[in-house]
Design brief:
One of its GO terms (molecular function) is catalytic activity. By secondary structure, the protein is α+β, with helices and mostly antiparallel strands. Helices cover 35% and strands 19% of the residues. The chain has 3 domains: 59 residues; 250 residues, Deoxyribonuclease I, Chain A, CATH 3.60.10.10; 82 residues, no CATH class.
């Protein structure tokens, strides 16, 4: 009965829905009629099958980025997480906007580590290595349950950089995220140089076949004028480019990155990521970038103004969907020769004579390996066929038959006759 009922429901559903529906059916256990029925072979078999389906469901859902449905990632400068209850507020906003990976800036946590929240999310953080250091800077990733299963590795660099790699549905392509908190425009040049040198080392070490996402509070205004940066940014930025913006754009140009926030047309309120305390000045200083090879996988980048965590920065979200180009490698098609000409005796004799002359020249050469000898023989046969009979011409069958063409001609004649009679 279980198989018959499940079969009707599973027709036309995806494999993941099959597993979920079968698991739900197995979880509805019948009440035992007599004492001791709980340990019967039927109940034990159902428990083993349920465990098997649950494990298979977990293996199916361990990949993050898919070409079938979009994945949401975001970055947010939350000013601080060094206050009670702040992580719970951020986690609730993350669930509300269905974000799989959330990059955080200015966490102000010290050292590095991983924290598992009661709601199921996980936090990978990186801060100052010294316990007595001031609670400043700090970056982190907040991962959903789906992202935790797809996590391959992560590496804390310093209080301004952290990176992580995730699996995608494509076995040869992984997703690499780099979360940044760049120095402000008024910071000393030496501090800026150290940050960008470390960032460039990370970008140099990436794999070309992977999807690279660079995001975070870059404290850089790139503006809406993309002159000289046509391959790096679009014309949908805000304001004018400053010194940090020029550094940031040059880095993106050197490592083939595209600034996503300047590509998609949105209202200004959906592009500004920071607002001054007096609510009079807005800037676009938080960014999400993707490598140019996978630019088509970036569907949208915009600000989510409804998210609130007591910060003057807005949540910047991106929608990703894996887009792959089909690679049509040319195959070695077999050459077809016009063999019908061999019905003529003269053509056959000419072909035999040509082969004999070529074989005599081959015998005069020095002894070679078996592979080279076979390659020479094959080339002789092909060249002789091309010289004597040539390639077979491919005649495509016409789409319209002869009778159809006759009918069309008759209709045209009748139409001409009708037109002449009217005049």
């Amino acid at each position: 009965m279980l198989a018959n009922r499940a079969l009707v429901k599973l027709i036309g559903q995806s494999p993941v829905k099959w597993i979920k529906m079968i698991t739900e059916t197995l979880m509805k256990k019948k009440k035992p009629r007599n004492l001791g029925d709980e340990d019967s072979p039927t109940i034990q078999a159902e428990e083993e099958m349920k465990t098997h389906f649950e494990n298979h469901t977990e293996r199916v859902c361990q990949n993050l980025l898919s070409p079938r449905q979009p994945t949401n990632i975001a970055t947010w400068n939350i000013r601080t997480m060094y206050t009670a209850g702040k992580t719970s507020v951020i986690a609730s906003e993350m669930r509300r906007y269905k974000i799989s990976i959330l990059g955080l800036c200015e966490t102000r946590w010290l050292q590095t580590g991983e924290v598992k929240l009661a709601s199921g999310e996980s936090i990978l953080y990186s801060g100052h290595p010294d316990d007595k250091a001031p609670h400043t800077e700090g970056v982190a990733f907040m991962l959903s349950k789906e992202a935790q299963r797809a996590l391959i590795s992560w590496e804390p660099i310093n209080s301004r950089l952290i990176t992580a790699r995730f699996k995608t549905t494509h076995k040869r392509i992984n997703l690499q995220l780099i979360q940044c908190y760049a120095p402000t425009n008024n910071t000393e040049e030496e501090t800026k140089d150290i940050f960008y040198n470390q960032l460039q080392q990370l970008l140099q070490a990436r794999k070309e076949k992977d999807i690279t996402i660079l995001m975070g509070d870059m404290n850089a205004k790139v503006g809406n004028d993309n002159s000289g940066y046509q391959l790096v940014m679009g014309k949908h930025g805000i304001g004018c480019m400053n010194e940090n913006g020029e550094r940031f754009a040059d880095t993106c140009a050197d490592y083939n990155l595209v600034i996503g926030g300047t590509v998609f047309p949105h209202k200004p309120i959906h592009k500004a990521t920071w607002m001054s305390p007096d609510h009079t000045t807005e800037n676009q200083i938080d960014h999400i970038c993707i490598n140019r090879k996978f630019r088509r996988s970036l569907l949208d980048v915009r600000v989510k103004r409804g998210a609130d965590a007591g910060s003057d920065h807005h949540l910047l979200a991106a929608k990703l969907q894996l887009k792959l180009k089909r690679c049509n490698n040319p195959t070695n098609t077999r050459t077809k020769f016009n063999t019908q000409l061999f019905q003529d005796i003269g053509t056959t004799e000419l072909y035999q004579t040509t082969l004999q002359n070529r074989f005599q020249a081959l015998q005069e050469e020095q002894h070679k390996s078996v592979e080279e000898h076979w390659s020479n023989l094959k080339n002789i046969w092909k060249e002789a066929c091309l010289e004597v009979v040539g390639r077979k011409a491919t005649n495509h069958k016409p789409w319209l038959s002869t009778n159809t063409l006759k009918k069309i001609e008759e209709r045209r004649t009748k139409k001409d006759t009708l037109n002449k009679s009217k005049t």
